[in-house]
């Protein structure tokens, strides 16, 4: 690991200003992705700007229509929050199954979304629930936020402040996980609302994506059978030592069916 400076930001504006002043600096949230790359000397930030102690980024608010989670809230706090578990249990369960206990205690929702790992779970929740990512300067719809592998619409010095999740009528997340990393080989988030059904998939492609065929089938008939009847093309899906593109394509409707079963239980 190379040497670096460290400072603790007191508010979002100060954090953004510090990064604007030094283009080689990086925001530090949970550090679950950044610090390993630094240890391997794959990243060499001149300065780490710690945003985890900013009070505005540590709050969770819940009402009947929306769950708002501060960017520096860790996965464990989302999983254990009583109102999140009551109003949006699919999101709480998703958070409870990210990584291991240590990762959940340190990793943050804002860090996960900003990193946009192809196999991360939170992007599927954001896309599936049509979430809004709130930054220090604008509001970004989830459909516009995820650009590609490890790429988002964030400007280099832009800081995620919170994530707003609309509360659906029904929702669930199912993940076929890598047993070592607990990342998703394939993860499927299904959400049913008055506007129809959204199905978001992570782990299967370079970035999170929606499946129109499943959304159409489940909007017409919200049953596991309708999901299993859909065929997903393996074209442009990931293929690696863990799973072929064809296997990932096979898993998507099966996991969607399991999610529907869970959502309607």
Automatic annotation (TrEMBL):
Keywords: FAD, Flavoprotein, Oxidoreductase
Top-level taxon of origin: Bacteria
GO terms of molecular function: anaerobic carbon-monoxide dehydrogenase activity; FAD binding
Domain FAD-binding PCMH-type: 1-170
InterPro entries for the chain: CO_DH_flav_C, CO_DH_flav_C_dom_sf, Diverse_Substr_Oxidored, FAD-bd_PCMH, FAD-bd_PCMH-like_sf, FAD-bd_PCMH_sub1, FAD-bd_PCMH_sub2, Mopterin_DH_FAD-bd
PANTHER family, per database record: XANTHINE DEHYDROGENASE SUBUNIT C-RELATED
Name of the featured protein: Carbon-monoxide dehydrogenase medium subunit
């Amino acid at each position: 690991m190379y040497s670096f400076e460290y400072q603790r930001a007191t508010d979002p504006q100060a954090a953004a200003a510090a990064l604007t002043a030094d283009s080689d600096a990086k925001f530090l949230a949970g550090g679950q992705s950044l610090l390993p790359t630094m240890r391997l000397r794959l990243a060499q930030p001149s300065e780490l700007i710690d945003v985890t102690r900013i009070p505005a980024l540590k709050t969770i608010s819940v009402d009947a229509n929306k769950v708002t989670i501060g960017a520096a809230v860790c996965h464990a706090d989302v999983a254990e929050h009583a109102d999140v578990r009551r109003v949006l249990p699919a999101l709480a369960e998703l958070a409870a199954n990210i990584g291991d206990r240590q990762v959940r205690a340190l990793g943050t929702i804002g860090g996960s979304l900003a990193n946009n790992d192809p196999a991360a779970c939170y992007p599927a929740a954001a896309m599936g629930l049509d979430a809004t990512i709130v930054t220090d300067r604008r509001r970004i719809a989830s459909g516009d936020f995820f650009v590609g592998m490890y790429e988002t619409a964030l400007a280099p010095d832009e800081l995620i402040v919170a994530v707003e999740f609309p509360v659906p009528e029904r929702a669930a997340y199912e993940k076929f996980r890598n047993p070592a990393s607990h990342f998703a080989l394939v993860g499927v988030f299904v959400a049913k609302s008055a506007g129809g059904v959204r199905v978001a998939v992570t782990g299967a492609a370079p970035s999170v994506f929606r499946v129109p065929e499943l959304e159409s089938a489940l909007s017409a008939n919200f049953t596991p059978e309708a999901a299993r009847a859909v065929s997903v093309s393996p074209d442009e899906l990931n293929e690696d030592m863990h799973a072929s593109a064809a296997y990932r394509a096979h898993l998507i409707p099966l996991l969607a069916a399991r999610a529907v079963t869970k959502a309607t239980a």
